[in-house]
Amino acid sequence: MGQTIEILKTTAIDHMLVIETDRNLASQNGESYAGIDAAGRGTTFPAKLATRLFEADAGIDHVFVMSNTVSVRRPRGWDDVHVEVTRRVVGEFYRFYL
């Protein structure tokens, strides 16, 4: 149940990863989370997505969700494995059963 979110574009530059999707995940104002504790207190879709991202990769220290874009900071940088894990978390966010 639920639909997979299509990832339109992924760009990694130094410690930032920007993921553009095929649907809105947040408002134009966006939501920012600087850790799992802050995200875990939220009840919005961006807060829940940020929580899942923090849980999937302990190296992530900041998530910003605005419109159809998710920006994720990982101070140690991005390798192919961590990019793919992050893409999978975003892509499967609306899936209840895989």
Description:
This protein has 98 residues and is of the alpha+beta class. It has one domain (7-91): Ribosomal Protein S8, Chain: A, domain 1. It has three helices and five strands, in the order E-E-E-H-H-E-E-H. The chain has helices at residues 36-41, 45-56, 80-91; strands spanning 7-13, 16-21, 31-33, 62-66, 69-73. A five-stranded antiparallel beta sheet has the order 1-2-5-4-3. The longest helix is centred in the middle third of the chain and has 12 residues, at 45-56. The radius of gyration is 12 Å and the shape is globular. The model has no long low-confidence stretch (mean pLDDT 94).
| Second-tier CATH architecture | 2-Layer Sandwich
CATH topology: Ribosomal Protein S8, Chain: A, domain 1
The tally of domains stands at 1
Order of helices and strands, N to C? EEEHHEEH
What would you call the structural class? Answer: alpha+beta
Radius of gyration, Cα only, in angstroms?
A: 12 Å
Question: Going across the major beta sheet, what is the strand order?
Answer: 1-2-5-4-3
**CATH homologous superfamily title:** Scaffold protein Nfu/NifU, N-terminal domain
The total beta strand count reads 5
Kindly state the mean pLDDT as a whole number? 94
Task: Characterize the biggest β-sheet.
Answer: 5 strands, antiparallel
Strand fraction band?
25-35%
Gap from first CA to last CA: 8 Å
